[in-house]
Structure formats: structure tokens, C-alpha cells
Amino acid sequence: MIRPSSLAAAARPLLTSAARATPATTAAAAATAARLSTTRMLRDQHDASGTTHFGFRTVREEDKESLVRGVFSSVADNYDLMNDAMSGGVHRCWKSAFIERLAPAPDTRLLDVAGGTGDIALRFLDYVREQNGGALGAAHVTVFDINPEMLRVGAQRFSKLGLENGGPHVSFVEGNAEELAGIEDNSMDAYTIAFGIRNCTHIDRVIRQAYRVLKPGGRFMVLEFGKVNNPLLSTLYDAYSFRVIPHLGQILANDRDSYQYLVESIRKFPTQQQFVDMMKHEGFQVVGQGYEDLTFGVATIWSGWKL
Ligand SMILES: C[S@@+](CC[C@H](N)C(=O)[O-])C[C@H]1O[C@@H](n2cnc3c(N)ncnc32)[C@H](O)[C@@H]1O
């Protein structure tokens, strides 16, 4: 038999929590949920045994960097062609949208990390020129990348356009996004990283370094493959990714493995919201939801401010 007093006891926690559900407690609960989601996601990126993922493979943390380096050394000469082939040229629209959202001024100092062959840097300088009556003003971009082959292809490309490495508007610097060695604290107006951060072993360290080098008021922007939230489109996208892209890699670049890694690494990257939580965790402020999906979330732009 259930006694009235036990009914009252059972009801008490419910009544108590309902009575306490003030806006402050709701906000605190949301913050706790965000922290847990960030912690879970970080645990998914590396675990206590010192392993991480390289695509769907589990590898030792210290091995990932050289494996990623191998991928980009292998694809460097065909990188631009493959981007067009895989995306049907759509990556160009994503990158242009990315720079339009950044809307740099003629005196912007940009650090483009994982800048590779310079796609973002070129769009940055084009944007400034268009907005500034054909002049580049004091605009400067540092293309920063861990891979010398990617940088070599980029520097050659810029040189053909009359923009010399080390000149007034561009420099190419080799280094790791997780350290940003040689880049001073509070020295940059903007930091961009396009299709680069998912290749890094410690995403949290990359974001922390971005925060360090940005000036107060500086902007952090990430362009990366997101998650497609529509179930039907997501199924089609998966089929295309896993069945077509590695074949294209084989046919066009004689390199199936690098493109298999590409599609797998996209699946291992945090969700749109998890990445926002990571940015906030490192100190960035976001406006609105903090991200914008492009092409149904195939690509996503995240944006944060160092205030
Ligand atoms: C897919 S490419 C993107 C290149 C360019 N941002 C673009 O959008 O075309 C990824 C780049 O990230 C670079 N990368 C990978 N890990 C890195 C790290 N830890 N630090 C700096 N660059 C890294 C690779 O060398 C490669 O050039």
C-alpha cells in the first residue's frame, strides 16, 4: 500500500526542482551541459592511453602529425585540382563566402593557419583590393602551415601574381598550428583556418593559440566540413564521400589513401555545436549561435571574437 506520506516524499523532489527552475538555474544547467559536451568531445579526440584518431584508425598521438604531413606532401601538387574535382568547384564559393564574412579592412593583418597553397590568402588580398579601389593598402597575410610542400606550391602561385614571399603583403611561414612559434601575442587582427583544424592532433591547443595571437577585438574564423543534419541528404553525402571521393583520388592523383583519410577525418570532427563550445571554453565570444552552415552543413563557418 502506498501511504500519503510516501507519495508526498516522492513528489517533493519534482516539486522542488520545478520550483527552482529559474532563468539562472536553466542557464547554469545549459552551461554544465555545454561543459560536459566539450569534455566528452575532447575525450573522443584523444584518450588517456595517448592515442588519437587518424581518420578511422587509432594511432599514437605522437604519430598523427607525421601521418598528416605525409598526406599533404603526397597531395600538394594535385591539391587544387582535386579540390575542384571533389566539390565540383563549390569549395571556391565556400572560401569566398568565408572571406566576405570576415570583411577585412585595408589595414587588416591576417594569420591564415593551415593556409596550404594560399587559397584563403589570395581571396583575402582580392577582397581588400576590390574594396579599396584596387590598392592593397597595409593589408598583410601570413600563410602559416606545417607542410613545406604545400607552402612551396603556394609561394610559387603568389610569385606568378607578383606577390613575393616576404614582401609587403604576404609571407609564408612553416610551423605547427598547435604552437604558432614566432607569432607574437596580441599581434593579429584576424585568424583564419580553412579545412585545416580537423587535421590537427589537439584542436583545443589550436584554438588556445589563436586566442593568444589575436589582438583584443580580433576575430577567429574557421571554415571546416560540418555535419549534414538532413537525414536524406546525409545518406547521399555519405555515399558520395565513401564511394566516389577515394576513387577520384585514385584516378586523378593516383592516391586513394589520402582521400580515404579525408572523408574519414570529416566524420571524426566535432559537431557544429561542440565546436562552438570548444571556442567558448578557450575564451572566445560568439554572436548568435556562433556558426553558419553552407550547403546544408557540408561546410560550416564558425566565428568568435577575442574581447
Ligand atoms: C586541406 S588543406 C587546407 C589548405 C587551405 N587552407 C585551403 O583551404 O585550401 C589542410 C592544410 O593543413 C595543414 N596542416 C595540417 N596539420 C597542421 C598543423 N598541425 N599545423 C599547421 N598546418 C597544418 C596541411 O599541411 C595542409 O596544408
TrEMBL record:
A single Gene Ontology CC annotation of this entry is: extrinsic component of mitochondrial inner membrane
**Topology of the protein relative to the lipid bilayer:** Peripheral membrane protein
The protein's matches in SUPFAM superfamilies, at most eight in alphabetical order, are given as:
S-adenosyl-L-methionine-dependent methyltransferases
Q: In which pathway does it act?
A: Cofactor biosynthesis; ubiquinone biosynthesis
Query: From its record, what is one biological process in GO terms?
Result: methylation
Q: Which InterPro entries match?
A: SAM-dependent_MTases_sf, UbiE/COQ5_MeTrFase, UbiE/COQ5_MeTrFase_CS
Q: What is its EC number?
A: 2.1.1.201
Q: What function is annotated for this protein?
A: Methyltransferase required for the conversion of 2-polyprenyl-6-methoxy-1,4-benzoquinol (DDMQH2) to 2-polyprenyl-3-methyl-6-methoxy-1,4-benzoquinol (DMQH2).
Subunit structure as annotated in this protein's UniProt entry: Component of a multi-subunit COQ enzyme complex, composed of at least COQ3, COQ4, COQ5, COQ6, COQ7 and COQ9. Interacts with PYURF; the interaction is direct, stabilizes COQ5 protein and associates PYURF with COQ enzyme complex.
Q: Which family does the record assign?
A: Belongs to the class I-like SAM-binding methyltransferase superfamily. MenG/UbiE family.
Protein name, UniProt field = 2-methoxy-6-polyprenyl-1,4-benzoquinol methylase, mitochondrial
Give the species. Answer: Allomyces macrogynus (strain ATCC 38327) (Allomyces javanicus var. macrogynus)
